UniProtKB/TrEMBL annotation:
GO biological process, one term: tricarboxylic acid cycle
Name of the featured protein: Probable malate:quinone oxidoreductase
Pathway participation: Carbohydrate metabolism; tricarboxylic acid cycle; oxaloacetate from (S)-malate (quinone route): step 1/1
Family classification: Belongs to the MQO family.
Cofactor: FAD
Reaction catalyzed: (S)-malate + a quinone = a quinol + oxaloacetate
Source species, domain of life: Bacteria
PANTHER family assigned: L-2-HYDROXYGLUTARATE DEHYDROGENASE, MITOCHONDRIAL (PTHR43104:SF2)
EC number, UniProt record: 1.1.5.4
Record GO terms (molecular function): (S)-2-hydroxyglutarate dehydrogenase activity; L-malate dehydrogenase (quinone) activity
Entry keyword set: FAD, Flavoprotein, Oxidoreductase, Tricarboxylic acid cycle
Pfam families documented for this protein: Mqo
InterPro entries: FAD/NAD-bd_sf, MQO
Length: 493
């Protein structure tokens, strides 16, 4: 066990996919560095990385319509879709490298081929999806994307979508076989297990209560063991706060000026789940639809195949909820404790600027069970309520930050906040988070260790061959890398 008086090189707060990814990368780059992970719960990946706390979609914009907004002139903006796909390709490369070098187990333990589909109804939505398909189909990162308005074809892709639907209803779908379902819990556990074997120390049931910089530049991490509530202290040269929604509070306690003006808005979620083998056998895809008016991007409805620990289930959702907690295992006072004089104006401004979101959340909270199930029937017309049960998903905290124009904006996605000297950094935000852990952590490494990047570049390129380049700029390189990672991970090209 590390000594409190002896500083460790790297402290990772939170035992989720982000800490596991960063720890794995740093161990590859500097094998002799000492690493310690502090996890509040009794095991890794029990919060946002838990497979039942997220949709498990390998987010690559193959089916998520919110990444391709329609411009005022009616054309489709694909920049966001290309960016997210690029990011997921980086994660695939990193996982592929770890599989090839024996640092990750059999790929089917954490990633499985699952076609990704977009499905819409109504004339306007059909027109949108057709234009989206035309904008993406020739891009090298979206090779293999199919489109159809034929109910027979769509039924062959996803049988449950069609029976019971009015024949006169305009429908359309896109499909790509290269989609994936990812068990981020299993992936995280494997990464952390590998770190332990390499000498990293994992401290479970450790609730970090404070982070303060000493005069000598070292960070003093105060934490309590959940059993006995015993206080402990550990010194560290570099700290990463990957504590999910609780990252905001811990970064605020660190006192770094870079966190000033940031706030958080918690959103909880629920899914409907079925394990009925007869129903599960009829649907093998992740099918995403259009978000409701005023709904946040993370609330786009989808009917998903999930493969967890070798068992297959279906999930539909999410249904938004509200809790002031920043973690499922957090405190009812998390939201209130996060309010500071420097973020009060941005938080109020963001609230006033997102009244449609507030209205949407209230509507979700007061909706009857039958009303919520009607949303599932829009995807699965002959679905029966008795076959489905409710599960509570993970808690998400959306970023609120200062804005020169609106004084405060609600931002969807993730953001790295780091001190000027790069000795502490944390991750705020939510989706597509886990799917893009590898590129996010590579960006953090570049930001926090700028003086080491050139020396590390050969090793980084070995882990991620496209490091420093864009696959969308080089179709031949994209084809070669995507083919290689597909073979390593045993998923479709």
């Amino acid at each position: 066990m590390s000594s409190p008086e002896t500083p460790i090189d790297v402290a990772l707060i939170g035992g989720g996919i982000m800490s596991a990814t960063l720890g794995t990368m740093l161990k590859q780059l500097e094998p002799d560095w000492s690493i310690q992970i502090f996890e509040k719960l009794g095991d890794a990946a029990e919060e946002s990385s838990n497979p039942w706390n997220n949709a498990g979609t390998g987010h690559s914009a193959l089916c998520e319509l919110n990444y391709t907004p329609q411009r005022p002139d009616g054309t489709i903006d694909i920049a966001g879709a290309v960016k997210v796909n690029e990011q997921f390709q980086v994660s695939r490369q990193f996982w592929s490298h770890l599989v090839e070098t024996g640092q990750l187990p059999e790929p089917t333990s954490f990633i499985n081929p699952t076609p990704h589909m977009s499905f819409v109804w109504g004339d306007d939505n059909v027109a949108f999806l057709r234009k989206r398909f035309d904008a993406l189909k020739d891009h090298p990162l979206f090779e293999g994307l199919e489109y159809s308005e034929d109910a027979r074809v769509i039924r062959s892709w996803a049988p449950v979508l069609i029976p019971g639907r009015a024949k006169s209803q305009p429908i359309a779908a896109t499909r790509i076989a290269a989609g994936t379902d990812v068990n981020f819990g299993a992936l995280t556990s494997s990464l952390i297990g590998n770190l332990e074997e390499g000498g990293a120390e994992i401290t479970y049931n450790a609730r970090v209560t404070n982070i303060k910089r000493r005069k000598d530049g070292l960070w003093r991490i105060s934490y309590r063991r959940e059993v006995g509530d015993t206080p402990f202290v550990q010194l560290a040269r570099f700290v990463f706060v990957g504590a999910g929604g609780n990252a905001l509070n811990l970064l605020q306690k660190s006192g770094i000026p870079e966190i000033r003006g940031y706030g958080g808005f918690p959103v909880s979620g629920e899914f409907l789940r079925t394990d009925n083998p007869e129903i599960v056998a009829r649907h093998q895809a992740k099918v995403y639809g259009m978000a409701a008016v005023g709904a946040p991007p993370m609330s786009v409805p989808h009917l998903d195949t999930r493969v967890i620990d070798g068992n297959t289930s279906l999930m539909f959702g999410p249904y938004a909820g509200f809790s002031p907690k920043f973690l499922k295992s957090g405190s009812w006072f998390d939201l209130f404790k996060s309010v500071r004089p420097h973020n009060l104006v941005p938080m109020v401004a963001a609230g006033l600027g997102n009244l449609s979101l507030v209205k949407y959340l209230v509507g979700q909270l007061v909706a009857k069970k039958s009303t919520k199930f009607d949303e599932l029937r829009q995807f699965f017309p002959r679905g029966e309520q008795k076959d489905w049960y409710r599960i509570t998903a993970g808690q998400r905290v959306q970023v609120i930050k200062k804005d020169a124009v609106k004084r405060g904006v609600l931002q969807f996605g993730t953001e790295v906040v780091a001190s000027a000297d790069g000795t502490i950094a944390g991750l705020l935000g939510a989706s597509p988070g886990a799917s893009t852990a590898a590129p996010i952590m590579l960006g953090l490494i570049e930001k926090c260790f700028p003086n080491r990047i050139e020396a590390w570049r050969p090793r980084l390129t070995e882990m991620v061959p496209s490091f420093g380049t864009k696959l969308s700029d080089d179709p031949q390189l994209a084809d070669a890398i995507m083919t290689r990672t597909a073979e390593s991970l045993r998923i479709p090209r």
